[in-house]
Amino acid sequence: MAHSNLRRLLASSALLLGATPAAAADYFERVATWPVFLNLPAGVDPASETVAEIVAATPDGMMLVYTDSPGERIGLVDLAEPAAPAPADTIDVGGEPTAVTVVGNTVLAGVNTSESYTEPSGHIAVIDVAAGSMLRCDLGGQPDSVAASPDGRFLAVAIENERDEEHDDGVIPQLPAGQLAILELDGDGRPTNCDAVRLVDLTGLAEIAPEDPEPEFVDVNSDNVAGTGSLTAVPREPDAVAWLDSERLVTANEGDYQGGSRGLTIFSSTGDVLYESGNRLEHLGMAHGHYPDDRADNKGVEPEGGEFGLYGDTPLIFVAAERGNFVAVFEDRPGAEPAFVQLLPTAVGPEGLLAIPQRDLFLVASEVDSEEDGLRGTIGVYARSADAPPYPTIVSDTDPATGAPIGWGALSGLAADPDDPNRLYAVSDSAYAVSRIYTVDAAQMPARITGYVDLAKDGAPAGYDLEGIALRPDGGFWLVSEGDPESESPLQQQSLLLAAGADGTVEREIALPDAAYEQAIRFGFEGVAARGEGEGEQVVVALQRAWNDDPEDTAKLAIYSPAQDSWSFVRYLLEAPKSERGGWVGLSEITHLDGDRFAVIERDNQPGSYAAIKTITVVDLGDVEPAAWGEDLPLLEKATAIDLLPAMQAGRGWISDKAEGFAITADGRVFAVTDNDGVNNASGETLLLQLGDKATSF
């Protein structure tokens, strides 16, 4: 067990305890998203599962300590430069770490060593930095949260003894019961006597299964009073609790158990409800495109973590949405409703929150890690240094039909109104059951989704896999549905060009020649552009990847002539993958520029730090003669016009692989948009990028 880096960081940070932070702005901006696989021990495969679940910091906030349960270790991160976190060390703790805090020079971690749900066990790992040693204080149960008193006199531990979700559908009670454990600490943060753990009985306090409280979280106020989150008479199922002051506390309500509520509640210290958020967090998720799609098991955004911090004179409440992948920030206003400040996008599965007011920083540990899917456990670093919220870049207005925000997400295509320089149109893909065309007001940033129409076929709602949109010269829209031969939906099996009215009515489905579908794969139509009118109208469709009849590293552009009801084709040469993970490169969008020139999005399928190719190229159809299906197809020449990666990475998040929409407004502004996959196995962050003007870009 190596502690040299930890000892060095603690020693150097002690010199900065008296430092005064620079004057803060009113809003947070993300300055780093640090993947914790960078901290894996030497010799461990970087693809190994490694997460950051709970995060703590030294008293001055110069070093972070996080739990990595799959690796059964604690990780250490040098945060001297918030925009450039650096790996420091890892410490094996002999089990699954579930919580961690730092008192003085001592790291205190709750460690779960349970053999089964019915035989829970665990300990507190006490890591003495100066001595480079670790001892264990047995708890006799499964710890889920730890909190030190502000004066460092004791450590409170929530012993959850969690239920088995697979047993009897997770219905409680399931004994043994959880409880609260108290350990007295000395002046250096070490337990004075591991054999003198004080246990506090929590049974009998709740009306639902009073014999099985399952406390999940604990926090201690300035009066050294501990508060715990557990199941209560109202099915909130608090998953986190934070004291706002000595008289009030806030809970983040997971609402997982038997369909409980999902929000935040402010209680008095005597248990009176002072504020209940109701559907406020759900509506924030909807307005920002962070509401999980219909594959989320009806659990909504699922509040998972809560934190409080006093930044200057401003008291702030932070609530994490585990399934929505965001943190909602509110200003605490005693006696009044908390005021919404901003929404912070996170990586997938935000779990641990940490306010560091003395450095004007806020931290988020995101626990989902799957190298196979390009998702990694991360620590997000946010600085209170912005004069305006940098996120969102697009948000929705209220839906008159429901009174809630217009639900949106998975924006997979973009088009501009030729007559209104501030109007864009976007479509959503198969993440949602019914296809939708959104109207976007781009007069200011963030842009606003002001309305929508749902697609209908034969009078019934229609669910295609829309990937592109263009305006028809005589009104209405051209749309493309990607196509997947193995899809269970009849509307999504073939790649289709759709002619739709302004009201969303599908007037015509236009298929490729029959022989084409014999060569089809699941990566079909991805973008559509239109030019001309009458006899000269042409609709150009981008196919994402090579079909079975294409040479390797090529894709087709398909050209439909409505007046002749005919197709012709050309080939586009794709770049070879450049990511360290390999993957593939394909097309995501096509937009008419002028004359015979079209702009094309060419991208790899790699997200986050693996992303290597996200470009806008230009092709000229006037340089080739398109051919019919089955003939030799001419190969287009291309030129790179815009590299999208710098703009996508400017927000310092774990970026989406899917740059999917591109449009140029009537006054020449250039826009691109990313697809958030309906928050399904993705961060949910949507970037509507304003990239300059057409005259300088093309």
CATH fold-level name of the largest domain = Neuraminidase
Within CATH, the superfamily of the largest domain carries the name: TolB, C-terminal domain
Q: Provide the residue-averaged pLDDT.
A: 92
What top-tier CATH class of the largest domain fits best? Answer: Mainly Beta
Helix content: under 10%
Tell me the β content: 35-45%
The CATH architecture of the largest domain comes to 6 Propeller
Estimated radius of gyration: 27 Å
Report the uncertain regions.
6-23
Work out the helix count: 5
Task: Strand order, main sheet: write it out.
Answer: 27-31-30-29-28
Question: What is the β-strand count?
Answer: 48
Principal-axes shape call: elongated
| Count of structural domains | 2
Task: Specify the biggest β-sheet.
Answer: 5 strands, mixed
The class by helix and strand makeup works out as mainly beta
What gap, in angstroms, lies between the N and C termini? 57 Å
How would you characterize this protein structure?
The protein has 698 residues and is mainly beta. The chain has 2 domains: 333 residues, 6 Propeller (Neuraminidase), CATH 2.120.10.30; 304 residues, Tachylectin-2, Chain A. It contains 5 helices and 48 strands. The strands form 13 sheets. A 5-stranded mixed beta sheet has the order 27-31-30-29-28, with no helix packed on it. A hairpin with a 7-residue loop joins strand 29 and strand 30.
Quick recap of the structure?
The protein has 698 residues and is mostly beta strands. A hairpin with a 5-residue loop joins strand 30 and strand 31.
